[in-house]
Design brief:
heterodimer, A: mainly beta, seven-stranded mixed beta sheet, B: six-stranded mixed beta sheet, five-stranded antiparallel beta sheet, 0% helix
Chain lengths: 114, 111
């Protein structure tokens, strides 16, 4: 298996633009997580899905952020409009289950909003 | 916050020495995991310890868990330059299905 795949790996955009981050989880994993990592705030859970259904989106910072999982092999995290404070590394992770299972992380997308 | 906190924030040791990192958390947990993150990469799972376990080993890694003190430690023995990375604990509170990651310890192993 290729592991969790994220695209793009790097994204530079101007303030106000729409940004879409993509994730392909490991086949057979029922859980998908989106995280944001910054120096100031560390690794924050934004949202997670179980069987394509959003379970907890309490970590989504504001309405500018939205996430979807139209099928078991694809998820997107969208920021519209983007702001400089959204600059961070965004990780997607998948897991075959909860609690007793490890999470498998993708390589991350480094987002820079100028 | 349910987030764990690692201590120290940064650690620098010579190759061959042992490295110890600590994690403290606030709420009761089911399990605790340790992850490693190399610079510019995603996190990689190292080891999971359940709340009813006190110690676990995996190769050069030794993890302890003290639920009464709400703390865990990760010991890396005979460190190598390749162990240079950030190490995070992730706690799994009794409610919900997500893990909460700590702030991380940045380990530098000097060859």
């Amino acid at each position: 298996d290729a592991g969790v795949i994220q695209s793009p790996r790097h994204e530079v955009t101007e303030m106000g633009q729409e940004v879409t981050l993509r994730c392909k989880p490991i086949s057979g994993h029922d859980y998908l997580f989106w995280y944001r990592q910054t120096m100031m705030r560390g690794l924050e859970l934004l949202i997670y899905f179980n069987n394509n259904v959003p379970i907890d989106d309490s970590g989504m910072p504001e309405d500018r952020f939205s996430a979807k999982m139209p099928n078991a092999s694809f998820s997107t995290l969208k920021i519209q409009p983007s702001e400089p404070r959204d600059s961070a590394v965004y990780f997607c992770a998948s897991s075959p289950g909860t609690k007793l299972y490890e999470q498998y992380f993708g390589p991350g997308t480094r987002l820079t909003v100028t | 916050s349910q987030q764990g906190e690692e201590d120290p924030q940064a650690l620098s040791i010579q190759e061959g020495e042992n490295a110890t990192m600590n994690c403290s958390y606030k709420t009761s947990i089911n399990n605790l995991q340790w992850y490693r993150q190399n610079s510019g990469r995603g996190l990689v799972h190292l080891i999971l310890i359940r709340s009813n376990e006190r110690e676990k080993h995996s190769g050069r890694l030794r993890v302890t868990l003290d639920t009464s003190k709400k703390s865990s430690s990760l010991l890396i023995t005979a460190s190598r330059a390749a162990d240079t990375a950030s190490y995070f604990c992730a706690t799994d509170p009794n409610t919900g299905n997500q893990f909460y990651f700590g702030t991380g310890t940045s380990l530098t192993v000097i060859p």
